[in-house]
Amino acid sequence: MAPADARLGQYLLQIDGVIAARDDAGLSQLIALEPPFDAGHRALIDD
């Protein structure tokens, strides 16, 4: 996977409406998108 920003060494991966950010140290965080893109908000995507 290509780095989102080579200077930061950060990689982004979108899974089920959540972005997982991983840095060079192997640390990761989950960042919820706004609005949440899940089954409960499917109309926001389909419309």
Overview of this protein structure:
It is a single chain. The protein has 47 residues and is mainly beta. The chain has one domain. Helices cover 11% and strands 32% of the residues. The chain has one helix spanning 42-46; strands at residues 11-15, 18-22, 28-32. Strands 1-2-3 form a 3-stranded antiparallel beta sheet, with no helix packed on it. The longest helix has 5 residues, at 42-46. Residues 1-10 have low confidence and may be disordered.
**Overall SS class:** mainly beta
Instruction: Please give the largest β-sheet.
Output: 3 strands, antiparallel
Number of helical regions: 1
Please mark out the parts with pLDDT under 50 across 5 or more consecutive residues, or reply none: 1-10
Taking all Cα atoms into account, the compactness measure Rg is 13 Å
**Shape call:** elongated
Biggest sheet: strand arrangement: 1-2-3
Measured as a percent range, the helix fraction is: 10-25%
